[in-house]
Amino acid sequence: MFGKKKTFLNRNPSTPVEDDYFARFADGVFEPDADEIVSNIVNDLDGLVDSFPAISLANLKQLTESIKNDIVNQTGKSFSLGTVEFLKIDLDSGKVVETGLEWTDATISVGSENFVVETLKSIFNSESTRMNDEINFLELANGTTEFVQSAKKYASMTDADLPSIPTEAGTMRRFLKMYR
User: Fold this and answer.
1) Is the pLDDT of residue 6 over 80?
2) 1 C-beta neighbours (distance < 10 Å), count
3) How does residue 174 score in pLDDT terms, banded at 50, 70 and 90?
4) Residue 170 CB partners (closer than 8 Å, separation 6+)
5) Coil, strand, or helix at residue 147?
6) In the prediction, which pLDDT does 153 show?
7) How is 62-115 classified by DSSP, letter by letter?
């Protein structure tokens, strides 16, 4: 082991992330102490030890990039994060609320792009999203636009890193074809 390892055994899962928009590992699949490489990646991320299972978008960006570079590209094997859900602080109440967006079965593979692109692929390629009559295009476009804007703000991502969100149904079909 290199240096002193911080342990997750005494973590406080209710410790909030300081940003108004953040993520959370929802299903316990991702284990920050899984092995030495994962543990070292996690311990290098500012604040993740204290906030887990919540994670800032900046840390999610760094975590996924580091896992891809240090594990996936080295072994050729995919790495599962489980389900990552996205949350925000309601400006009126100050409470944490669900955004309704999640990266289901989040997996980092050799061909993976950044977490925003992968999340949008997961959302738009989900049959349950496409078949849900309760979700209209405007709600989906607004939610995903807020997600992309938050990635710019909190994860320092640029327009070049991020896909454009469609603004009309015909464009949505082209977007879906592009990200399948």
Assistant:
1) no
2) 7
3) low
4) none
5) helix
6) 96
7) HHHHHHIIIIIHHH---EEEEEEEEEEE-TTT--EEEEEEEEEEEEE-TT---H
